[in-house]
Fold:
Amino acid sequence: MSKVISMFFSGTGTTKKVVTSIGKSISKELKKEYEIIDFTLPHVREDEVHIRKDEILIIGVPVYAGRVPNVLLDYLSKIKGEGALCVPIVLYGNRNFDDALVELSDICTGNGFSVIAAAGFIGEHSFSRILAKGRPDQKDMETVEEFSKDIVSKIKSSSFDMIDQIRGTRPYRKYYRPVNPQGDFVDIRRVKPLTNDKCNDCKICVDLCPMGSINYEDVSKFDSICIKCGACEKGCPEGAKYYSDEDYLRHKIELEIEFQARKEPELFL
Ligand SMILES: Cc1cc2nc3c(=O)[nH]c(=O)nc-3n(C[C@H](O)[C@H](O)[C@H](O)COP(=O)(O)O)c2cc1C
Ligand code: SF4
Ligand code: SF4
Structure:
């Protein structure tokens, strides 16, 4: 029997919440089996994925710097579609999704999927506990339900070729970069979270890190890069992970001030 499959990368769980909810609703309505492929952790991203023509894929990633996270591009190119129907979803932290949704949609099309709908939803910002706090919230989840119903109607009517123009620009704009008070670009790519003395060495952060970067023997050390996904900082039960980098902290506060006004999900069908 054909399946509905939800696939996602989700450091702090907001993408997971939306993508699994859409997948579950559609599978229930269409009385199809349901499967989840969570590719947040690095070992999952080693294998190619082949989605069959009669399966339906709901795929989601968070927006990083206005684009699809570049660390995922290799893996995303290995998800093959064979003409299967697909719904790309992005979650963003109330600033903007810029070109991330057109980029994800183009990746899916390039891999042989037929994109029948797409959406940008809002999730609590990975850097912050107050920017888009608690989102996706109940109102967002009601929109998720309506969107899922609309996708089902579209599948039942077989009118797959109509999709509104997804908001975004081609060629894609450059990765969004923060600026300092003088207006010069700052580079926060090398910034990593620190560990304070509240740490009880439980190793939870080691298991959470999507880059497999936190050293098992000494959790304050790094074996590889940090993408500042928020998984260790928000997932540490002791509140032991924190940032001290001035540029990072200034950027976080700027975002919290400048993008306070609530944004709403954007649906393309
Ligand atoms: C490195 C990085 C860059 C980000 N860039 C953006 C951005 O350009 N625009 C935006 O609105 N949110 C941005 N965010 C916030 C995330 O897109 C947002 O919090 C998302 O809901 C996180 O998804 P997750 O909970 O599935 O990890 C960024 C987050 C990180 C870690
Ligand atoms: S999750 Fe927190 S308390 Fe546990 S090892 Fe990591 S930093 Fe330490
Ligand atoms: S070390 Fe960096 S990449 Fe790993 S979980 Fe923490 S913020 Fe994410």
About this structure: The pocket of iron/sulfur cluster (ligand 2) is lined by residues 195, 199-205, 219, 236, 238, 240-241 (CB under 6 Å). The two ends are 26 Å apart (CA to CA).
